[in-house]
Design goal:
The protein is about 50% helix and about 15% strand. The protein is an alpha+beta fold. The protein has one domain: Orthogonal Bundle (Arc Repressor Mutant, subunit A). A three-stranded antiparallel β-sheet has the order 1-3-2.
C-alpha cells in the first residue's frame, strides 16, 4: 500500500500549497520540483493520479498548451 500512502501525502501537500498560493500555476514537472520540494522523489504516476483527482473535484484546473504541455492552476474550490 506504499502507493496509497504516497498519494495521500501528495494530496495533502498539494492542498496545503493551493491554500497558501491561490494564484499558483505550473506544469507537472514544476509542481514536482518547486511545490513539492520535500517530495521530489515521488512517483510521476502517483503525482499524475493525484493531480487528475484534484482536477476532477475542482481544486485545480488544467489547460493544455499548444505544445501539449499541461498547465495546472489552483481552482476556486480550495
Amino acid at each position: 500500500m506504499r502507493g496509497d500512502t504516497e498519494r495521500e501525502q501528495l494530496r495533502q501537500a498539494l492542498l496545503a500549497y493551493a491554500r497558501a498560493h491561490p494564484d499558483a500555476s505550473d506544469t507537472m514537472e514544476g509542481i514536482r520540483s518547486f511545490w513539492l520540494q520535500s517530495q521530489t522523489g515521488c512517483s510521476p504516476e502517483n503525482l499524475e493520479h493525484v493531480l487528475a483527482d484534484l482536477v476532477s473535484i475542482g481544486v485545480f484546473v488544467v489547460k493544455r498548451l499548444p505544445d501539449g504541455t499541461s498547465l495546472y492552476s489552483v481552482g476556486i474550490d480550495t
